[in-house]
Protein backbone atom coordinates (compact mmCIF):
# COMPACT_ATOMS: atom_id res chain seq x y z
CA UNK A 1 0.00 0.00 0.00
CA UNK A 2 1.01 3.59 -0.55
CA UNK A 3 0.70 6.88 1.30
CA UNK A 4 -1.28 9.41 -0.70
CA UNK A 5 -2.57 12.96 -0.53
CA UNK A 6 -5.62 14.70 -1.91
CA UNK A 7 -4.37 18.25 -2.22
CA UNK A 8 -4.63 21.39 -4.34
CA UNK A 9 -1.79 21.49 -6.85
CA UNK A 10 0.92 24.10 -6.47
CA UNK A 11 4.67 23.77 -6.10
CA UNK A 12 4.60 24.44 -2.36
CA UNK A 13 2.02 21.72 -1.71
CA UNK A 14 3.83 19.23 -3.92
CA UNK A 15 7.10 19.90 -2.09
CA UNK A 16 5.27 19.48 1.23
CA UNK A 17 3.90 16.09 0.15
CA UNK A 18 7.30 14.91 -0.97
CA UNK A 19 8.80 15.99 2.37
CA UNK A 20 6.11 14.12 4.31
CA UNK A 21 6.80 10.82 2.53
CA UNK A 22 3.72 10.94 0.30
CA UNK A 23 4.16 9.12 -2.99
CA UNK A 24 0.74 9.28 -4.71
CA UNK A 25 -1.39 12.34 -5.43
CA UNK A 26 -5.10 12.88 -6.07
CA UNK A 27 -6.40 16.31 -6.95
CA UNK A 28 -9.25 18.25 -8.52
CA UNK A 29 -7.90 20.06 -11.58
CA UNK A 30 -10.63 22.74 -11.69
CA UNK A 31 -9.09 26.20 -11.76
CA UNK A 32 -5.61 25.07 -12.81
CA UNK A 33 -4.07 26.31 -16.09
CA UNK A 34 -5.67 24.48 -18.98
CA UNK A 35 -8.81 23.67 -16.96
CA UNK A 36 -10.70 26.93 -17.34
CA UNK A 37 -13.45 24.87 -18.99
CA UNK A 38 -15.04 21.90 -17.26
CA UNK A 39 -14.32 19.61 -20.20
CA UNK A 40 -10.85 18.15 -19.76
CA UNK A 41 -8.19 18.13 -22.47
CA UNK A 42 -5.58 15.41 -22.75
CA UNK A 43 -2.74 17.89 -23.24
CA UNK A 44 -3.66 19.79 -20.05
CA UNK A 45 -3.89 16.54 -18.09
CA UNK A 46 -0.53 15.41 -19.44
CA UNK A 47 1.05 18.70 -18.37
CA UNK A 48 -0.50 18.31 -14.91
CA UNK A 49 0.82 14.76 -14.59
CA UNK A 50 4.30 15.86 -15.65
CA UNK A 51 4.22 18.72 -13.13
CA UNK A 52 3.45 16.27 -10.33
CA UNK A 53 6.09 13.82 -11.55
CA UNK A 54 8.72 16.61 -11.58
CA UNK A 55 8.42 16.59 -7.76
CA UNK A 56 9.07 12.85 -7.59
CA UNK A 57 5.38 12.06 -7.08
CA UNK A 58 2.78 10.02 -8.97
CA UNK A 59 -0.50 11.52 -10.17
CA UNK A 60 -2.51 8.44 -9.26
CA UNK A 61 -6.07 9.79 -9.42
CA UNK A 62 -8.21 12.78 -10.31
CA UNK A 63 -11.69 13.85 -9.28
CA UNK A 64 -14.26 14.01 -12.03
CA UNK A 65 -16.44 17.14 -11.92
CA UNK A 66 -19.04 15.16 -9.94
CA UNK A 67 -18.35 16.41 -6.44
CA UNK A 68 -19.62 16.12 -2.87
CA UNK A 69 -20.43 19.84 -2.75
CA UNK A 70 -24.19 19.53 -3.32
CA UNK A 71 -26.37 19.87 -6.39
CA UNK A 72 -26.32 23.69 -6.39
CA UNK A 73 -22.57 23.58 -7.05
CA UNK A 74 -22.56 20.75 -9.57
CA UNK A 75 -21.55 21.58 -13.12
CA UNK A 76 -23.56 18.57 -14.35
CA UNK A 77 -26.62 18.69 -12.07
CA UNK A 78 -28.99 16.90 -14.45
CA UNK A 79 -27.16 13.60 -13.93
CA UNK A 80 -28.62 13.26 -10.43
CA UNK A 81 -31.74 15.36 -11.04
CA UNK A 82 -32.69 13.38 -14.18
CA UNK A 83 -33.00 16.68 -16.01
CA UNK A 84 -33.25 17.33 -19.76
CA UNK A 85 -29.46 17.66 -20.17
CA UNK A 86 -28.68 14.34 -18.48
CA UNK A 87 -27.49 12.49 -21.60
CA UNK A 88 -25.42 15.46 -22.76
CA UNK A 89 -23.79 15.79 -19.35
CA UNK A 90 -23.01 12.06 -19.21
CA UNK A 91 -21.39 12.40 -22.63
CA UNK A 92 -19.18 15.16 -21.20
CA UNK A 93 -18.17 12.88 -18.33
CA UNK A 94 -17.16 10.22 -20.86
CA UNK A 95 -15.12 12.81 -22.76
CA UNK A 96 -13.24 13.58 -19.54
CA UNK A 97 -12.55 9.88 -19.05
CA UNK A 98 -11.21 9.70 -22.61
CA UNK A 99 -8.86 12.61 -21.91
CA UNK A 100 -7.63 10.93 -18.70
CA UNK A 101 -6.93 7.71 -20.61
CA UNK A 102 -4.94 9.60 -23.24
CA UNK A 103 -2.92 11.34 -20.49
CA UNK A 104 -2.09 8.10 -18.69
CA UNK A 105 -4.20 8.68 -15.57
CA UNK A 106 -5.61 5.31 -14.49
CA UNK A 107 -8.20 6.21 -11.83
CA UNK A 108 -10.97 8.78 -11.53
CA UNK A 109 -12.95 9.39 -8.36
CA UNK A 110 -16.47 10.79 -8.29
CA UNK A 111 -19.69 11.33 -6.33
CA UNK A 112 -23.28 10.65 -7.30
CA UNK A 113 -24.95 12.87 -4.72
CA UNK A 114 -27.67 15.49 -4.54
CA UNK A 115 -26.97 16.60 -0.99
CA UNK A 116 -23.56 17.91 0.05
CA UNK A 117 -21.61 16.46 2.97
CA UNK A 118 -23.98 17.22 5.86
CA UNK A 119 -22.67 18.41 9.23
CA UNK A 120 -24.00 20.27 12.26
CA UNK A 121 -23.12 23.97 12.27
CA UNK A 122 -20.92 23.88 15.38
CA UNK A 123 -17.66 21.94 15.70
CA UNK A 124 -16.92 19.83 18.76
CA UNK A 125 -13.94 20.82 20.95
CA UNK A 126 -10.96 18.48 20.68
CA UNK A 127 -7.58 17.97 22.26
CA UNK A 128 -5.45 21.07 22.58
CA UNK A 129 -8.12 23.28 21.06
CA UNK A 130 -8.71 21.31 17.86
CA UNK A 131 -12.13 21.62 16.29
CA UNK A 132 -13.82 18.40 15.21
CA UNK A 133 -16.39 18.30 12.45
CA UNK A 134 -19.61 17.17 14.14
CA UNK A 135 -22.89 15.59 13.06
CA UNK A 136 -26.02 15.00 15.09
CA UNK A 137 -29.13 14.05 13.14
CA UNK A 138 -31.39 15.23 15.96
CA UNK A 139 -30.08 18.77 15.47
CA UNK A 140 -30.87 18.79 11.75
CA UNK A 141 -33.76 16.40 11.12
CA UNK A 142 -36.39 19.15 10.93
CA UNK A 143 -34.57 21.24 8.33
CA UNK A 144 -37.02 22.15 5.52
CA UNK A 145 -37.27 20.18 2.26
CA UNK A 146 -35.15 21.33 -0.65
CA UNK A 147 -36.76 22.79 -3.80
CA UNK A 148 -36.05 19.62 -5.81
CA UNK A 149 -37.41 17.27 -3.13
CA UNK A 150 -38.75 14.72 -2.76
CA UNK A 151 -36.25 12.27 -4.23
CA UNK A 152 -37.26 8.75 -3.26
CA UNK A 153 -34.91 5.80 -2.99
CA UNK A 154 -36.39 4.39 -6.19
CA UNK A 155 -35.69 7.63 -8.05
CA UNK A 156 -32.17 7.86 -6.67
CA UNK A 157 -31.37 4.31 -7.76
CA UNK A 158 -32.75 4.94 -11.25
CA UNK A 159 -30.43 7.93 -11.68
CA UNK A 160 -27.38 6.15 -10.29
CA UNK A 161 -28.04 3.06 -12.41
CA UNK A 162 -28.59 5.18 -15.51
CA UNK A 163 -25.14 6.71 -15.07
CA UNK A 164 -23.35 3.44 -14.29
CA UNK A 165 -24.92 1.60 -17.24
CA UNK A 166 -23.66 4.22 -19.68
CA UNK A 167 -20.34 5.28 -18.22
CA UNK A 168 -18.73 2.10 -16.87
CA UNK A 169 -18.60 0.33 -20.28
CA UNK A 170 -16.89 3.40 -21.72
CA UNK A 171 -14.42 3.55 -18.82
CA UNK A 172 -13.63 -0.16 -19.20
CA UNK A 173 -12.99 0.22 -22.93
CA UNK A 174 -10.59 3.08 -22.13
CA UNK A 175 -8.83 1.29 -19.27
CA UNK A 176 -9.74 3.87 -16.59
CA UNK A 177 -11.17 2.73 -13.25
CA UNK A 178 -13.99 4.76 -11.66
CA UNK A 179 -14.28 4.86 -7.86
CA UNK A 180 -17.49 6.24 -6.36
CA UNK A 181 -17.62 7.85 -2.90
CA UNK A 182 -20.38 6.95 -0.45
CA UNK A 183 -23.07 9.42 0.71
CA UNK A 184 -21.72 11.29 3.72
CA UNK A 185 -23.34 10.73 6.14
CA UNK A 186 -26.03 8.09 5.89
CA UNK A 187 -29.56 9.08 6.86
CA UNK A 188 -32.56 7.02 8.02
CA UNK A 189 -34.02 4.97 5.18
CA UNK A 190 -37.48 6.15 4.16
CA UNK A 191 -36.84 9.55 5.71
CA UNK A 192 -33.55 10.84 4.35
CA UNK A 193 -32.69 14.49 4.86
CA UNK A 194 -34.58 17.51 3.54
CA UNK A 195 -36.68 15.22 1.38
CA UNK A 196 -33.71 13.45 -0.24
CA UNK A 197 -32.99 9.74 0.27
CA UNK A 198 -29.30 8.84 0.62
CA UNK A 199 -29.13 5.37 -0.91
CA UNK A 200 -25.33 5.17 -0.84
CA UNK A 201 -25.37 5.92 2.88
CA UNK A 202 -25.79 2.34 4.11
CA UNK A 203 -23.74 -0.83 3.81
CA UNK A 204 -26.60 -2.47 1.94
CA UNK A 205 -26.73 0.45 -0.47
CA UNK A 206 -23.01 0.30 -1.18
CA UNK A 207 -23.27 -3.43 -1.84
CA UNK A 208 -26.19 -2.80 -4.22
CA UNK A 209 -24.14 -0.14 -5.99
CA UNK A 210 -21.31 -2.60 -6.61
CA UNK A 211 -23.80 -5.11 -7.99
CA UNK A 212 -24.87 -2.66 -10.72
CA UNK A 213 -21.90 -3.80 -12.82
CA UNK A 214 -19.48 -6.70 -12.65
CA UNK A 215 -16.82 -4.71 -14.49
CA UNK A 216 -13.44 -4.57 -12.71
CA UNK A 217 -13.45 -0.85 -13.60
CA UNK A 218 -16.51 -0.23 -11.40
CA UNK A 219 -15.63 0.22 -7.74
CA UNK A 220 -15.28 2.42 -4.71
CA UNK A 221 -13.50 5.44 -3.46
CA UNK A 222 -13.83 3.72 -0.10
CA UNK A 223 -14.22 6.35 2.60
CA UNK A 224 -13.55 4.51 5.83
CA UNK A 225 -14.89 7.48 7.77
CA UNK A 226 -18.18 7.50 5.88
CA UNK A 227 -18.46 3.72 6.21
CA UNK A 228 -17.93 4.14 9.98
CA UNK A 229 -20.75 6.71 10.01
CA UNK A 230 -23.11 4.01 8.73
CA UNK A 231 -22.24 1.63 11.55
CA UNK A 232 -23.32 1.19 15.15
CA UNK A 233 -20.28 -0.92 16.07
CA UNK A 234 -16.66 -0.74 14.85
CA UNK A 235 -16.83 -4.49 14.16
CA UNK A 236 -19.05 -3.62 11.20
CA UNK A 237 -16.29 -1.45 9.74
CA UNK A 238 -13.73 -4.26 9.60
CA UNK A 239 -16.35 -6.58 8.12
CA UNK A 240 -17.27 -3.94 5.51
CA UNK A 241 -13.64 -3.74 4.39
CA UNK A 242 -13.57 -7.49 3.93
CA UNK A 243 -16.99 -7.74 2.26
CA UNK A 244 -17.00 -4.67 0.03
CA UNK A 245 -13.36 -5.18 -0.90
CA UNK A 246 -13.92 -8.62 -2.38
CA UNK A 247 -12.85 -8.88 -6.00
CA UNK A 248 -10.66 -5.79 -5.85
CA UNK A 249 -13.55 -3.33 -5.78
CA UNK A 250 -11.85 -0.89 -3.40
CA UNK A 251 -9.82 1.43 -5.65
CA UNK A 252 -8.85 4.19 -3.19
CA UNK A 253 -9.16 4.63 0.59
CA UNK A 254 -9.94 7.69 2.70
CA UNK A 255 -8.26 6.48 5.89
CA UNK A 256 -9.94 8.54 8.62
CA UNK A 257 -11.46 7.87 12.02
CA UNK A 258 -14.53 9.01 13.93
CA UNK A 259 -15.81 8.94 17.46
CA UNK A 260 -19.43 7.80 17.52
CA UNK A 261 -21.37 6.19 14.70
CA UNK A 262 -24.69 6.16 12.92
CA UNK A 263 -26.47 9.54 13.14
CA UNK A 264 -24.06 11.07 15.67
CA UNK A 265 -20.29 11.38 15.43
CA UNK A 266 -17.21 13.60 15.51
CA UNK A 267 -14.36 13.41 12.99
CA UNK A 268 -11.22 13.06 15.10
CA UNK A 269 -7.52 12.45 14.65
CA UNK A 270 -6.80 8.91 13.44
CA UNK A 271 -5.28 7.79 16.75
CA UNK A 272 -8.23 8.73 18.98
CA UNK A 273 -11.35 7.41 17.28
CA UNK A 274 -13.47 4.33 17.90
CA UNK A 275 -12.08 2.38 14.94
CA UNK A 276 -8.88 0.46 15.61
CA UNK A 277 -6.81 1.72 12.68
CA UNK A 278 -4.23 -1.06 13.03
CA UNK A 279 -6.97 -3.64 12.78
CA UNK A 280 -8.50 -1.80 9.83
CA UNK A 281 -5.16 -1.77 8.02
CA UNK A 282 -4.79 -5.49 8.63
CA UNK A 283 -8.22 -5.97 7.04
CA UNK A 284 -7.03 -4.17 3.90
CA UNK A 285 -3.96 -6.41 3.90
CA UNK A 286 -6.14 -9.49 4.20
CA UNK A 287 -8.14 -8.64 1.06
CA UNK A 288 -4.97 -7.91 -0.91
CA UNK A 289 -5.53 -4.18 -1.25
CA UNK A 290 -2.47 -2.67 -2.91
CA UNK A 291 -3.70 0.87 -3.42
CA UNK A 292 -3.41 4.24 -1.73
CA UNK A 293 -4.42 5.48 1.73
CA UNK A 294 -5.08 9.20 2.16
CA UNK A 295 -6.07 11.35 5.15
CA UNK A 296 -9.47 12.98 4.86
CA UNK A 297 -11.47 15.66 6.72
CA UNK A 298 -8.69 16.48 9.16
CA UNK A 299 -9.54 18.40 12.37
CA UNK A 300 -9.25 22.16 12.32
CA UNK A 301 -6.75 24.27 14.28
CA UNK A 302 -6.52 28.04 14.61
CA UNK A 303 -2.75 27.66 14.22
CA UNK A 304 -3.00 25.79 10.92
CA UNK A 305 -3.33 26.81 7.28
CA UNK A 306 -6.64 26.77 5.42
CA UNK A 307 -5.69 23.40 3.92
CA UNK A 308 -4.59 22.06 7.30
CA UNK A 309 -0.91 21.33 6.68
CA UNK A 310 -0.18 20.64 10.36
CA UNK A 311 -3.05 18.21 10.77
CA UNK A 312 -2.24 16.51 7.48
CA UNK A 313 1.42 16.18 8.49
CA UNK A 314 0.34 14.31 11.63
CA UNK A 315 -1.91 12.03 9.58
CA UNK A 316 0.78 11.35 6.96
CA UNK A 317 3.24 10.34 9.64
CA UNK A 318 0.65 8.22 11.42
CA UNK A 319 -0.34 6.34 8.26
CA UNK A 320 3.21 5.80 7.08
CA UNK A 321 4.22 4.57 10.52
CA UNK A 322 1.41 2.00 10.47
CA UNK A 323 2.34 0.86 6.98
CA UNK A 324 5.95 0.34 7.99
CA UNK A 325 5.10 -1.34 11.29
CA UNK A 326 2.83 -3.86 9.53
CA UNK A 327 5.16 -4.38 6.61
CA UNK A 328 2.44 -3.08 4.31
CA UNK A 329 4.33 -0.25 2.62
CA UNK A 330 4.94 -0.89 -1.07
CA UNK A 331 8.05 0.28 -2.89
CA UNK A 332 7.46 2.94 -5.53
Describe what you observe in this structure.
With 332 residues, the protein is an alpha/beta fold. The longest helix is centred in the middle third of the chain and has 22 residues, at 153-174. Helix 2 (42-53) crosses helix 4. The protein starts with a strand and ends in a 7-residue tail after the last helix. It has helices spanning 11-19, 42-53, 78-81, 86-102, 137-140, 153-174, 203-210, 224-229, 234-244, 277-286, 309-325; strands at residues 2-6, 24-27, 58-63, 107-110, 124-125, 131-132, 134-136, 177-180, 218-223, 250-254, 257-261, 264-268, 292-294. The chain is globular and about 50 Å long. The model has no long low-confidence stretch (mean pLDDT 97). Helix 2 (42-53) links the parallel strand 2 and strand 3 (58-63).
Keywords:
13 strands; alpha/beta; 332 residues; 8-stranded parallel β-barrel; 3-stranded antiparallel beta sheet
Decide which structural class fits the backbone. alpha/beta
Cα radius of gyration in angstroms: 19 Å
Quaternary arrangement of the chains shown? Answer: single chain
SSE topology string: EHEHEHHEEEEHHEHEHHEEEHEH
Task: Tell me the strand percentage band.
Answer: 15-25%
Please list the strands of the largest sheet in the order they lie side by side: 1-2-3-4-8-9-10-13
Number of helices: 11
Name the poorly predicted regions: none
Helix fraction, binned, reads 25-40%
> In one word, what is the shape?
globular
Number of DSSP strand runs: 13
Termini distance? Answer: 10 Å
* Average pLDDT figure: 97
Largest sheet: 8 strands, parallel, barrel
Amino acid sequence: MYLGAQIPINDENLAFCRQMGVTHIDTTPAGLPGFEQVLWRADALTALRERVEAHGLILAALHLPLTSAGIERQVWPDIMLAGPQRDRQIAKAIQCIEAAAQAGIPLLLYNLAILPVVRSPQRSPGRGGLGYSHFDYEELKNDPPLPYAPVTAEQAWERISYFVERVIPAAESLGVRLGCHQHDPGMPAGVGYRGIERVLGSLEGVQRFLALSDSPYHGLNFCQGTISEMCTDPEQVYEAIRTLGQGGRIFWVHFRNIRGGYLRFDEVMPDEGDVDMVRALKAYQAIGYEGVLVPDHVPQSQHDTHYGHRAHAFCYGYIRGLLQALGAESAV
